[in-house]
Design goal:
alpha/beta; 13 strands; elongated; RNA-binding
RNA sequence: GGGCCUGUAGCUCAGUCAGGUAGAGCGUCGGACUUUUAAUCCGAUGGUCGCGGGUUCGAACCCCGUCAGGCCCGCCA
């Protein structure tokens, strides 16, 4: 059974109505690591709906969290906002400085700025969560009742956090962080509490009172999270392994939520995604691939498959090079299979059955539209990469595919895939080994090892190519013609010789279309240089 | 110091919760086919399940220990 179905089955034992929640702090550029958070939740929600449960899928935007520091991509003006809430400060412009104009005129915040492109990526990927803005929720009073319990039972919560996390809280710790006189959550100390007011004094010499029912502050993270579970009614949440460790925020949260009078949600801990060869995603280290960029390379179904096929506790290495080819080709293979038919076979061992079920489940989760049969593009990534490199116009690509019978009509999906392929080829992610290159100089090492037979073929080939019309059709006829008058052992040797001389490898893509795009004189003179090497 | 996760074929992993002949895909090798020669099809190859003990008729799976890698116990998906 697919992991999402396992989670759904477990939920079904607990009731028919569920709220599956996810949450991200919009502190900077989103990356595909964040996609795992959302997609893991989305897949559980889909599986639960497929199992007949009533599911509300929620994405909490943690806009009430403070700006922790002036990140590298921010200008020095952001110093004044450190400690202030992300949903209450202006967004950075391209130069890293705050965009006051949009902030004042449209209320365009830091949180909006980073969230918007992510939401558009989610739309493409087929994820449609109900959005909950955390800062707005505080302001509307959604946290009011639970904040009161937390403040009333400050000692119980303190005991819980100290016991489970093993960390000692300062004497003036209080389960409510008030906003100071400059709108920040730091540099402030709680000096008293009388519901609904938390009294404070800050390092600027000011003091005041924060109304916990009006969002004039927030609950500290370890209480904020369980309070969200409480008022939203979360019954299931997937979260990163950082929260999942013993002593981490889930282990304190599950007890704190009971103090607040609610049940903890069913957890699912997932591993992180790293960029192949570059370690964990980190915005500050600059080694990120954003969801938008990832979508320029791969179609959304394939991105979904990446998450769906790996069990959550497996770390994923996102490889934008050859790994992408393998992944995409795997998708094509899977989409061509008939899982129902395979499962009808009674002879299957338990192990084989599990494997087929998991593959079927992964494909069910990969579709951007729940319940839709995933569609095969009928063309592998490899083949398309080849065509996209050798054909200048899209029309030529389609003609080739139609001629070969691989494709009957050009669907929007195919066009879409070709567009992404062309983008990928131009990007730095495109792997060298996929790149078609005609040598500029002959590969001396290779040519020197030619035997007599290969040498003869080379001479004949050179003559044929220099005499033929420089069109695809004539070139493709010319290559096999070069061996006609020779008693060669294998007819494919003509191609082997051509590949070795022109590309330095034994096998390659169809030569004629590539050569026809090149200059005849250059190709012929390359072959002549090869002959010179043999003559010398 | 305390804790979590991972370790199975060259690679990516399933199988561990419910112990019962060691599994897939990719790769590799071989063959077929071909003016679709990075394609396609067929076949083969491949593992002391990290290591050591224990429980059991029987252990990749349960228990104890151990090694290695990653992570958490301020913040982070």
């Amino acid at each position: 059974m697919h992991w999402a179905d396992v989670a759904a089955q477990s939920l079904s034992h607990k009731g028919d109505k569920h709220v599956v929640s996810t949450g991200i702090t919009p502190s900077g550029e989103f990356h595909i690591g964040h996609l795992r958070e959302i997609l893991t939740g989305d897949m559980i929600a889909r599986a639960a709906r497929d199992a007949g449960l009533d599911v509300d899928f929620v994405f909490v935007i943690d806009s009430a969290d403070p700006l922790r520091k002036v990140y590298d991509f921010l200008g020095p003006e952001y110093e004044q906002f450190v400690g202030n809430q992300l949903g209450a400060i202006p967004a950075p412009k391209d130069d890293g400085n705050p965009d006051w104009e949009r902030f004042e005129n449209e209320g365009w915040t830091y949180a909006n700025h980073f969230l918007e492109p992510f939401l558009s990526a989610l739309h493409q990927i087929g994820v449609q969560p109900r959005l909950v803005d955390n800062l707005e929720s505080y302001r509307k009073g959604n946290f009011a009742a639970l904040s009161k319990i937390a403040c009333d039972r400050a000692d119980d919560i303190r005991e819980c956090i100290e016991r489970i996390s093993g960390r000692e809280l300062p004497d003036d710790w209080f389960p409510w962080s008030p906003l100071n006189s400059k709108g920040g959550l730091d540099k402030v100390r709680v000096i008293g509490y009388e519901y609904p007011l938390v009294h404070w004094e800050d390092e600027y010499g000011q003091n005041g009172s924060s109304d916990i029912t009006k969002g004039e502050g927030k609950l500290p993270w370890r209480i904020d999270w369980p309070a969200k579970w409480g008022w939203i009614g979360v019954t299931c949440e997937a979260f990163g392994k950082d929260h999942g460790a013993a002593g981490g925020s889930y282990s304190t949260g599950r007890e704190i939520v009971e103090i607040l009078g609610h049940k903890p949600p069913q957890p699912l801990v997932y591993e992180w995604i790293s960029l192949k060869g570059k370690g964990a995603m980190s915005s500050s280290a600059g080694n990120t691939v954003g969801p938008i960029e990832a979508l320029q390379l791969v179609p959304p179904e394939i991105l979904r498959l990446l998450i769906a096929k790996s069990k959550p506790n497996k770390a994923i290495e996102f490889d934008t090079g050859m790994g992408l080819v393998t992944l995409a080709d795997e998708y094509e293979r899977l989409s061509a299979r008939d899982f129902e038919q395979e499962l009808a076979n009674q002879e299957l061992s338990r192990r084989q059955r599990v494997q087929i079920e998991d593959a079927a489940g992964a494909m069910r989760m990969a579709s951007t539209i729940s319940g839709n049969q995933v569609q095969s593009a009928a063309v592998t990534f490899r083949h398309l990469a080849l065509l996209a490199q050798t054909k200048k116009s899209d029309e030529d690509v389609w003609r080739s595919l139609k001629d070969s019978g691989a494709v009957l009509t050009v669907t929007p999906q195919l066009q879409d895939r070709l567009d992404r392929m062309r983008y990928w080829i131009q990007s730095s992610h495109f792997p060298d080994e996929m790149r078609i290159k005609i040598l500029s100089q002959p590969s001396v090492d290779v040519i020197q090892h030619f035997n007599k037979e290969e040498e003869d073929i080379l001479r004949a080939l050179t003559v044929e190519l220099s005499n033929c019309q420089w069109t695809k059709k004539d070139i493709s006829a010319a290559i096999p013609r070069s061996i006609e008058s020779l008693a060669v052992s294998h007819k494919w040797l003509a191609y082997k010789v051509a590949y070795l001389c022109l590309m330095g490898v034994e096998k390659g893509p169809r030569l004629a279309p590539i050569l026809s795009e090149m200059n005849q004189n250059e190709i012929v003179s390359l072959l002549e240089s090869c002959i010179k090497i043999l003559d010398s």
